[in-house]
Specification:
single chain, 18 helices, 70% helix, 0% strand
């Protein structure tokens, strides 16, 4: 499951052992895998939570934490090259089949919800000139988004598997408006406005709460960092993988942080917080006029439509590969004559449809979908990080190649602590909503076990199942009585 394929060039697949990728190509893949639609929403997301000082701290924490995760996936690719079935394979190898299943399902569900953010953002962008679409959460917006969901399903079902040409256009469409935005914002930056935004606003609360409030947004924009290690066996020189990971990550980190920070020099924080999404368009419009908003909006729509195709394929591939590994029911491992995993694709589109309808009941559809995407990805990330720490502590028991180093142990521990902090930062609301999605997935696990004529649960697995069900019940009750709101 190569999430690097979801945004960048998909031409070098994991089944091409003869490919020899250069440092430049590997770096481009890292950048392409991480720069998505989320960056266009950063100004508003940060301004709603913090000022310049909090943003600088938040990006420092997120940058270090995600860099540790990048190193985790790089290390695991080298230490356990036999685990090539995706991120969930690390959870399965380290903590058992049930948690491996949960990791696979959570990663897939995260991708499905992420697809919803694309449509909400597209409709919100067009809503600037078509008020009936609102912020992407009106009845008309949901109907049109649903048509888009199922239109892409029919397109992919016909065999649209390779999207190399589309992704080249997508990469340009993403990077050009972002870079132009940063340059123009620096040129039009007003020092007095920037200074007024430095400490944050009264509604932002303490500096710690400000930083905590931005964490899920940083997770969303960094999704794809795990794809950097996928191409390690195709590298012309093995050491280029680590260099490409670092160069690509730092490049993307600089882009994300720059977009956020320069925005504080254009408009007061309170005004940025009220901009419609994509807020980058609103900030540029304030600086240069209407053409700036149009420029960013067109680039975003082209980027999102192209990336959606690849993300849909990636999400379906998660279920397909898991089914082939007998971690999901067999029907999800079926594919058409054009090698399209149709049942997995259908299930992917169906979940995206459900979440799309749910966004209609949210006060902020885009932020809700974005935060839920991030929350669902945290358990797979946490388990992968914990597995890296585990093999560094017990390399012989975990069948790793070579000797573990102190650096690998430190990286594994820091990545584990960071993802654990992200779960705390997500708050009870998104943890409980995640349980509501996770718990019903157990039916798929039970079906897979029955197909294999195996015992349904071990004592440890039964305990994990009970915890997930209790969490889901509490989440449903909390929503019903108003303890938490979408």
């Amino acid at each position: 499951m190569a999430q690097a394929d979801t945004h960048g060039d998909t031409g070098a697949g994991p089944t091409a052992p003869t490919a020899k990728l250069t440092l430049l190509t590997l770096t481009a893949m890292v950048v392409g895998s991480m720069v998505g639609a989320g960056v266009f929403s950063l100004p508003r997301r940060f301004a709603q939570e913090t000022g310049v000082a909090g943003a600088l701290i938040a990006w420092s924490v997120a940058g270090l934490g995600m860099l540790m995760l990048a190193f985790v996936f790089q290390t695991l690719a080298v230490r356990r090259p036999d685990l090539d079935a995706g991120v969930y394979a690390y959870a399965k190898a380290g903590f058992g089949e049930y948690l491996g299943f949960f990791s696979a399902f959570g990663y897939w569900a995260s991708a499905c919800v992420g697809n919803v953010t694309y449509w909400v953002l597209i409709m919100s962008t067009i809503g600037a000139i078509a008020p009936a679409l609102g912020d992407g959460d009106t009845a008309l917006a949901i109907i049109l988004s649903s048509a888009g969901l199922w239109g892409f399903f029919l397109l992919i079902r016909r065999g649209v598997k390779e999207a190399t040409a589309i992704n080249r256009i997508v990469t340009v469409a993403k990077l050009v408006p972002i870079i132009v935005f940063v340059i123009l914002a620096l040129f039009y930056l007003e020092p007095s406005v920037f200074a007024d935004n430095f400490g944050g606003a009264d509604y932002a609360g303490s500096l710690f709460n400000q930083v905590r409030g931005t964490m899920l947004a940083t997770v969303f924009v960094f999704l794809g960092v795990e794809g950097a290690s996928v191409y390690s066996r195709h590298a012309k020189r093995r050491e280029d993988v680590g260099r490409a990971t670092l160069l690509g990550f730092l490049s993307v980190f600089a882009i994300f942080a720059s977009v956020t920070i320069v925005s504080y020099g254009i408009l007061p924080m309170s005004e940025i917080a009220e901009l419609r999404q994509p807020s980058m368009a609103g900030v540029l419009e304030a600086a240069v006029g209407t053409w700036g908003s149009v420029f960013v909006s067109v680039g975003l729509i082209v980027s999102v439509l192209g990336a959606y195709l690849a993300w849909s394929l990636m999400a379906a591939e998660v279920l397909f590969v898991a089914a082939k590994d007998e971690d999901m029911p067999r029907f999800l491992g079926r594919s058409s004559g054009d090698d399209v995993p149709v049942p997995a694709l259908l299930m992917t589109t169906a979940l995206s449809q459900v979440v799309l309808v749910v966004t209609a009941f949210s006060d902020d559809a885009f932020s809700f979908a974005l935060d839920l995407t991030s929350s669902l990805s945290l358990i797979p990330f946490l388990l992968a990080a914990a597995f890296a720490a585990k093999i560094a502590l017990r390399p012989r028991q975990e069948r790793v190649e070579g000797r573990s180093t102190r650096r690998e142990l430190v990286v594994g521990i820091l990545a584990t602590l960071y993802t654990a902090f992200l779960l705390y930062a997500a708050g009870l609301k998104f943890v409980l909503v995640s349980f509501i999605i996770y718990a019903p997935a157990t039916f798929l696990f039970v079906k897979a076990r029955r197909e294999q004529n195996r015992r349904l649960f071990s004592p440890k697995e039964a305990l994990i199942c009970a915890v997930s069900v209790v969490g889901a019940v509490v989440g449903i009750v909390a929503l019903a009585v108003g303890w938490i709101e979408l």
